[in-house]
């Protein structure tokens, strides 16, 4: 299984609740634990402006390129603007396009980045600048590699940007399982929204997810799933209010991959959020996702 990664994925956030150093730490742990070898890593090309414009408005793209976001626009992003940030999100979008392409060839592929599901066509918010996997779906559709895609968003926060981007589009099915009483507000409807109350633990989460996946896959036949594998449903997460264990999150990953495999659907993984009090826990959860994914590779 190929793992897509760039040293420039680091969003250059400094001392921020989003540990953007996590990307490099995950790569190092994958190597150290021999889950991946140096030959498994692929450097992504940056997305082109044409790729990004398949989802985002030209005016917003221009503002990002020229550093002309307003004060309010930067506040809404909740992360500092920098040229390194722009570079990182362009690469992350390129990485998610590539992950989709390679998933179609290899059945499964992971981008060690992306999952920026709060980004809308005309603005970014909640640490998300560009909706990398929405861009991936649009690029693959445009190239006629796929017609229909599904997003399975298991980040603890609702996938509002994704839901808005694909609203009314019958070629893309969006599933989001998230904590209801948490950012973002409002939550534009996904094809399926599983609104969990605060404090939900492993067993209930897994049951709800399985029901949702079964329903989604009976209503819709995607040629590719983008899995948004947020680490923040974890019980010790600073921005999440669910109570999943590390083992429960492993079972979550396995459930998604098994359901996809049962219908012979390729999966492209993106990492999304993860704000555990101990950054090592976030790294462990993301690394587990990659280790389990490898079991489902050809
Ligand atoms: Zn999140």
Walk me through this protein's architecture:
The chain has ten helices and eight strands. With 298 residues, it is an alpha/beta fold. Helix 1 (22-32) links the parallel strand 1 (3-4) and strand 2. The chain is globular. The termini are close together. 51% of the residues are buried. The structure holds zinc ion. Residues 155-157, 230, 232, 272-273 line the site of zinc ion.
Derived from helix and strand composition plus strand pairing, the structural class reads: alpha/beta
Strand tally: 8
Give me the oligomer status: single chain
The shape is globular
Q: Helices and strands, in N-to-C order?
A: EHEHHHHEHEHEEHEHEH
Helix content: 40-55%
Count the DSSP helices: 10
Bound molecules: zinc ion
Question: Would you identify the regions where 5 or more consecutive residues have pLDDT less than 50?
Answer: none
Strand percentage, roughly? 5-15%
Distance between the termini: 8 Å
Mean pLDDT: 97
